[in-house]
Amino acid sequence: MSSSIVIRGAAEHNLKNVDLEIPRNRLVVITGLSGSGKSTLADDIICREGQRRFVESLSSYARQYLGKLDRPKVEHIEGLSPTISIDQKTISRNPRSTVGTITEILDHLRLLYARLGTPHCPKCDDVIESHSVDRIVEEAYLDWPGADVMVCAPMILERKGEYRKELGELREQGFVRVRIDGEVRRLDEEITLARYERHTIEVVYDRLKLTPDRRTRFAESVEKAVALAEGLVNLIVDGTAHLISSRFSCSKCRVSLPELEPRLFSFNSTQGACTRCQGLGRARIAHFDAVVPDASLPLSKAIVLPKKGKNYRYLGVAPSDLNKRITEWGGDPDLPIGKLSAKIRKLLWEGEKGGEVVTGKKRRHGVKPRGGYPGLAALLEEAWATTGAWELMKFLPHRLCPQCEGTRLRPEVRAVRFRDLSIDQIVNFTTHEAIEFFDGLELQEKERLIGKTLFPEIRERLEFLEKVGLGYLSLARSADTLSGGEAQRIRLAGQLGSGLRGVLYVLDEPSIGLHPRDNRALLDLLRKLRDLGNSVLVVEHDRETIEAADHVIDVGPGAGSNGGMIVAEGTVTSIKKAPDSITGRYLSGKERIEIPDTRRKRTKNRLVVRGAAQHNLKKIDVEFPLGLFIALTGVSGSGKSTLVQRVLVPGVAKHLGLGNELPGEHKKIDGLDHIDRIIRIDQSPIGRTPRSNPGTYTKVFDEIRDLFAKTPEAKTRGYQKGRFSFNVKGGRCEHCGGAGVISIDMQFLASVVVVCEECDGKRYNPETLAVKWRGHSIADILSLPIDEAREFFRDIPKIHQTLEMLVDVGLGYVCIGQPSTTLSGGEAQRVKLASELKKTATGRTLYVLDEPTTGLHFADVKRLLVCLQRLVDQGNTVIVIEHNLDVVKCADWVIDLGPEGGAGGGTVVAEGTPEQVAKGGKGATAAPLADALAGSHAPPLVKGRKRGTGVEPDDRFVITGARQHNLKNLTVEVPRGKMTVVTGPSGSGKTTLAFDILFAEGQRRYVESLSTYARRFLGRLDRPDVERVEGIAPAIAIDQSGRGGGPRSTVATSTELHDYLRLLFARAGTPHCLVCDAILTATTPTTAARKIAETLGEEPTYLIAPIHRDGADRAPTVSELSTEGFARVILDDAEVRLADLEEETNLDDAELVVDRLRPAKVGRGRLAESVEEAYRRGGGEMAARSRDGKTTLRFSERPSCPDGHGALMEALTPRLFSFNHHSGACPECQGIGHQRDLDFSLLVQDSHLPIFEGAMENRVGSWVARKSGRVRKVIDWLRDRAELKPSTPVDEYPKSLIEEIFDGTGEEVIPVSYRSMRGTGRPRRVTGTTWEGLRACVRRWHVRASSEAWRRSLEERMSSQPCAACHGGRLRRELLAVRVGGLGIDAIARFSVTEALGFFDALHLAGWQQQVVEGVHQEIVGRLRFLDQVGLGYLSLDRGTETLSGGESQRIRLATQIGSHLVGVLYVLDEPTIGLHPRDCDRLLDSLVRLRDQGNSLVIVEHDEGTMRRADHIIDMGPGAGRFGGEIVAEGSPEAIESNPKSGTGRFLAGLEVVGVPVTRRLGNGGTLEVLGARAHNLKNIDVAIPTGTLTVISGVSGSGKSSLVMDILSRALAQKLNDARKPAASHREVRGWQAFESLGVIDQTPLGRTPSSNAATYTGILTPIRTVFSRTAEARTRGWGPGRFSFNVADGRCEECEGKGGILVEMHFLSDVWVECERCKGKRYNAETLKVRFKGATIADVLAMEVAEAVPFFENIPLVAPILVALEETGLGYLPLGQPATTLSGGEAQRIQLAAELGRPPRGRKVYILDEPTTGLHFGDVRRLVGMLHRLVDRGDTVIVIEHDLDVIANADHVIDLGPEGGDGGGEILASGTPEEIAACAESHTGRYLKERACGGALSAH
Q1: What is the per-residue burial (b if ≥16 Cβ within 10 Å, else e) of 160-176?
Q2: If you ran DSSP here, which 8-state letter would residue 1250 be given?
Q3: Within a 10 A sphere around the Cβ of 1093, how many other Cβ atoms?
Q4: Is 571 exposed, middle or buried (0-12, 13-18, 19+ CB in 10 A)?
Q5: Long-range contacts of range 1306-1309, CB-CB < 8 Å, 24 or more positions apart?
Q6: C-alpha gyration radius of the chain
Q7: Which of 346, 518, 1008, 1026 supports an S-S bond with 962, CB 3.0-4.6 Å?
Q8: Quick one: three-class SS letters along 858-921?
Q9: DSSP three-state, residue 1850
């Protein structure tokens, strides 16, 4: 493994081709001045590239949602691990985000309450239960067997009324009796109820005795009662009522609850969120003080609501209305509001009882309010709800929601409880309290099963929050109230909890917002991450962090263009000694930030915040002395930002009339009259687009533009100030819109910015640039560094002063016009400070800065302090929230909050001068501040030694207590950095260990570091059943799955090469004319003007534009053009004056003369303006024509043919080059590239015969040959015209006649007479017809076929053929004419990988094209090269992925991983040699070794001997399968395994056991199965003969055509003939010899079923006779039960609670679904009655639980059962329970069950079996067993055809057909056929070469 991350040629942003080596597994700090390039190096290069490489290993589906991860500008990076970025910006500040949602604890709690919560009624608090009808019936029979029951449907429950109408309706519906208040009454009698008493009315549905024979009747009655009463039924048993609900509803209150699902408990879901606040917990509630800020005024003046006319706007009331109300209430409206009585003020605000609000549309339609006056509060809130007017916002601050009381949830949700607690109560626990709650739980069995992964997840996440010091946080704490330090520690908690190793963690400024005490806790966490075996890279300026680092990189020497170099690197000591390191000088004490000589004295003026109680503030009074530099400090989360940003700043802003934000909770703020301005200065960007820059922000650019407008040249041209703005049309370059650059969207890559070719990056047009001031154009000024500009404008005071300020704050290196988007946060902050410093001081300004030292180096902090002190020197007040002790020690006054964070904070611990605070010793700030004042720094607290260089010794992944599936509490160590093979018998637990534990845990932990959004697309990653997994690395699975299906998926699309090709052609492609092949060109107005001037010079020239129609109606008239000022047109190639034309003259084809001029003589300005006008008039087209007409230049803003053949109507975008998008796909074939069409060879099956006399012996041919039909008559006429006889064989027809018959004769009329039903619908005689061709006829017949048989017959004669429109190119013709390097995208797609690589290696584009597509070109070449390296150079890029072999698919995945160059990854592979020939296995293993040598760990589930021998470590599992497996039999090196007597694998490796080979080969039964003319995919029209009655193996290298021959042709053709299958066979001429067989069996490893209802007993068919046996028992006959009673899929006998499954599936959403044993049947699947029937003492459930070996003697006398059981046992499945769900079987077990089912049945005639790679997943012993079974099938007279590469199987064959010689286009031929010995003798056969290495004539194996 590489010991370092090696970076070569880093040139992103300002980095100057940096070369660097960063030691791995170290704590590395990157530091340097603000803007020097630190974050670029760490984030934009290292972090981005590490994440990009890992994300590329994920599925294409997931990658499309994970954002743009573009390749950085760097030549080479190696040694990168998967990267995780941790910063303070990744926490959502959305008010819907809480600590619980961020940590995902709330997701798990929602799942907990949905699955284990007990619903209660939100009104009466009774427990609510849901009962299905079946459950109601079942429980009734269990509780009251034989009892008399009355079934009632409750209609009215405890409600007042007479209910005459309701009783009458029940009578009309046919009901006879009702039960009223407990008494049964007949409906035909007079019923009178007391009106004002409560009544309960129930319909009596049935009265019966609960006997078994009446069960069905009882169930029907209950079902009808439930339906009538909307979920309720009342069962009256012996006079006692039992009210039952079939829904989650309260039977008393009739309150219903929806089904308990996790979304119900989410306040971000409409189902769960409080309806008042929509799940925010806070709502906008009208605030009296906001509406009436001054109660000393009378109502008309006191209420400050916006008005419209006489009314308050939006409210619909006027002050006069309110005055009337006050008078009605006995008050005086002229009195100040504050002097009105409390009662009147309450009525005014809250309204009268029953008052209704009428606003908006209702009021406009004249609707009057009912009831009394609703109150100002209600009017305001309703107005806000209906209008959302921003003017009302300040009167409705966010407050605790009165409906949900801040819980965010609906009442019915809060009524669901777990352990008597609702979910909102638990989320209001602190982390510490939540841990105590979950630790104290004693779970019941059901809770333990359902929560086996749920509770550990919750506990683990809570514990890690506690470990990082956040035990005081509640889970309900809103994310927008978290401090930066708290947010970052939440992220760190998750990473520390993941336990990953081998990861690169990148942190940007982790000390931001952290108190010195908290910073030490952070450093402890970073060291823990490092000591786990990770690399930690930190961008930081904090002294303590730098001194704690193992390695430091100092970037500089300056900022911006003066930075971007490595000044020094090494240990802290070496940095201190580096002469060029500014960092080193500060660390060594050579430079320092000095303490001010004197502190400013306090004055009488001060701001006092009284009773601050927002968030965790404890009603504190805080005094801010004015005119001082104040530092507010305290531990993270102590309340600093809350005090200043949520209380003080909004309070001051409100006093000054600024903003709408109301201050947080407090009593008042004193001293506000001393402030006249408040300014917040932060590090947010000074602009969001490149158009903003320091010049525009500081307004100095306005002064510069004024200067240019006053120059003589500008005055002469009439240029105003706006001419020199690059944001305004006129002076700017229109090609780039004044940006100087053009941003080209690169879709999934980052956009590319190229310099504008028109203005060369200067932003302005040439006319504007011609104006100079002191020899400089406006563009030259923008490009000046501020240092130079200051000197340049020294004598211009206004400009010089601002530039001087920018230099003073350290921005002299920045250019005036440098885009704001390229400035760092520190640079942006200093631009803002300079803008403030230049202003005239009032001495009454309050400046507030929150963490201003963020991103600032020591030198930058020193400069910042100078600026802040200058602001205070002007008499202003500066308040800084800060932890940086260099800032705190320089303050005049310090306020320290604490003593802890969260609930432990919120008080003032100390205040005074820095010396007073330090001396007081209170709080966490005192001690470190005392050190800072003394000029010393506390030594870094180092827990664990620093690390030197080099790599730590290789370690291991440790798995402890693995119990997943059949693993027996396994403990195993997997060596890290090695290639480990996990092997053992099929079903022994190999895949469980490798994938379900190692891979799942490795990827789960890494993916959890990604954003919540990203994880949605990465699939469910379950926590395995294992005690502990230590040292796990990020894991990537490489398998043979994921081959894209369908004709739209190709090699290029699956490798994403096609995406890059589309991008290449869209951005650098050259469109060509379809007619003349000329290049289509577009011309900008500036370029057109230049070309006109160069070509026509001083010649009199007309600028003309085509007269386009206005809309779609007409061209402009003569008078309309004259009115616009035009005088001439070009009509019929001659100049004509408009005055000479009639008004009615048609001007459709005329061209308008826009201007007449001599290009060289007029100014550029006029020429350019005239060209722009001509373009505008001509809709983007114009021409310049000499007056004599000899020269005409035509121009278009769209790419157009210079000869006028047409233009490209749509700008080229990547979407257009996608054949999967309608805008680009060929309209004829919809982007498929081919169409199913009539195939000559399939229709004419014997061309040696005449066309109508045997050549077409098929149903379609018979239809064509009908003598009376039109088709037959046309073909006869065409044949006669060619002077051929009816007896002429088809192969003697000339090519032209074949084309006429099949493709038609165009518009030619054929003079034949025939009968037709077209038009009238009745037969009529027609003479003469055009002929469209047989292909068109068949297409039409196929579309119109009403018979499925006729459609199938047509499809049998059709094959896939290239599209006639696009010729296989898949795209529209005009897109195929777009070229790069002279080739279209379709031509490149037809290249093989090797050919494409050669093309792109030689491709060189010029100018901006090369710049734009440089990254795309690199990606294409890189991907092609890695495909070539893994031996796939022969694959064409347009090869369909559905035609790829498994080996080819896997090598494509491997190529991607090798190309990623990731280090420290755990790659897990499942059977990588499946489908690979031994020759290809060697190539694969070379690739795997290369992957390991890059520094990765490989775990491979494999049985291949070659793979084992090249492994570093082998884990042999067993000793058997299923419950006999799950243990480690042996582990160690291959040699150690060979010598281990316990290892079955070792015995085979050592040769002690072998797969035997027959002594003789079968010759077959004399028959032959032939495939003639096979040409599917890469097969080259081959004929194949397979001897019947033999075991035949089809072999060959991967991709040679085996599956195409056997599965796509032979298997499908036989399925059609023998099994009536529909899917047509792939292209071939004929299959012969199939008549010798009666049926086809295709045996593979697909699952036996998709649900637990399928098992070995059902698949093999033995459950049916077993059920028959049980139905013939005496007990069953007595009860009258047939075999159906003993089926768990039939309602009668099965358990209805679990529907015969034996368990209940509990859906766990993002966790694994859980099967819980059914409480009713205890997993037996059947109801109690069915289980009373026994056979030989066993119930049907007992039989299903029997293992095969146990069942064999039990059923030995049952003929239909015993043979199959014996076959199952002989195939090695004796351990298998008969009822084991098919979903739990391995592929090998499924295959053996299929084979046993065949062997256990008596032969029914000759059968042909086809098996594709049957040794997949089979161990040596399993292969030996498989070979024996195949021989048994052949010995009984069947034919077995196997596709296989396993040499043991090939050596056992009677006949071998070897395809090759290579894969892809290099294959598709028969190299050799014969016995294995004959194949071994073939020199050209790769199979033969490997067969030579083992003897083919050993002893005959038993079979």
Answers
A1: ebebeeebeebeeeebe
A2: B
A3: 20
A4: middle
A5: 1306/1330
A6: 43
A7: 1026
A8: HHHHHHHHHHHHHHHHCCCEEEEECCCHHHHCCCCEEEEEECCCHHHCCEEEEEECHHHHHHHC
A9: helix
The answer to whether the CB of 1104 falls within 8 A of the CB of 1174 is yes
Please return the burial class of 292, using the count of CB atoms within 10 Å of its CB with bins 0-12, 13-18 and 19+: buried
Give phi and psi for 8, each to the nearest 5.
-130, 130
Please report which residue ranges of 229-367 form alpha helices under DSSP H: 288-291, 299-302, 319-328, 342-350, 360-364
pLDDT digits (tens, 9 = 90+) for 1069-1120: 999 998 899 889 888 887 888 889 989 988 999 999 988 654 536 678 888 8
What separation in angstroms does the CA of 1611 have from each of 526, 1619, 1638, 1829? 61, 11, 14, 21
CA distances (Å), 702 to each of 579, 680, 706, 707, in order? 43, 24, 6, 9
CB 519 within 8 A of CB 489: no
Q: How many CB atoms lie within 10 A of CB 1104?
A: 26
Spatial separation of the C-alpha atoms in residues 1448 and 1445, rounded to whole Å: 5
Q: Which tokens is 1699 given?
A: 């529907």
Q: Is the dihedral of CA 316, 320, 326, 329 positive or negative?
A: negative
pLDDT digits (tens, 9 = 90+) for 531-582: 888 899 999 988 889 999 999 999 989 888 888 999 999 999 999 999 989 9
- The DSSP string of 6-58 is EEEEE-STT--SEEEEEESSSEEEEEESTTSSHHIIIIIIIIHHHHHHHHTTS
Answer for the pair 1370, 1220: CB distance below 8 angstroms, yes or no. no
Q: How many helices (H) and strands (E) in the chain?
A: 74, 66
Please state, in angstroms and as integers, the Cα–Cα distance from residue 1064 to each residue in 61, 1083, 1460, following that order. 22, 22, 22
Q: Residue 1156: what are its φ and ψ, rounded to 5°?
A: -125, 125
pLDDT at 1323: 67
**Nearest in space to 1852 (alpha carbons), one of 1884, 1883, 1879, 1830:** 1830
Contact of 574 with 550, CB cutoff 8 Å: no
Tell how far CA 35 is from the center of its chain. 33
Residue 1177 burial (CB < 10 Å; 0-12/13-18/19+)? buried
CB 705 within 8 A of CB 699: no
Buried b (16+ CB within 10 A) or exposed e, 1788-1815: bbbbbbbbbbbbbeeeeebbbbbbbbbb
Of 1388, 1423, 1386, nearest in space to 1403 by CA = 1388
Q: How far is Cα 712 from Cα 1525, in angstroms, rounded to an integer?
A: 96
Q: Is the peptide bond before 1294 cis (omega within 30 degrees of 0)?
A: no
Residue 554 in tokens: 């100092």
Provide the pairing of β-strand 1497-1501 with 1466-1470.
parallel
Mean pLDDT value of segment 70-81: 82
1546's CB contacts (< 8 A; 6+ apart) are 1516, 1530, 1537, 1538, 1539, 1540
The distance from CA 1049 to its chain's CA centroid, rounded to whole angstroms, is: 20
- Name which of 371-375, 847-851, 1230-1234 the model is least confident about: 371-375
Within 13 Å of residue 685, how many CA atoms lie on the same side as its CB?
13
Q: How confident is the model at residue 1778 (pLDDT cuts 50, 70, 90)?
A: very high
Residues pairing with 1234 in the sheet: 1362
For residue 920 the two structure tokens come to: 């007081």
Are 27 and 549 a contacting pair, CB within 8 Å?
Answer: yes
Contact (CB, 8 A) for 849 and 682:
yes
Please give the model's pTM, rounded to 2 decimal places. 0.72
Listed residue (1891, 1826, 1898) closest to 1858, CA to CA? 1891
Residue count of the chain, please give it. Answer: 1903
pLDDT tens per residue, range 743-795: 765 544 555 667 787 888 888 988 899 899 988 999 999 999 998 999 999 98
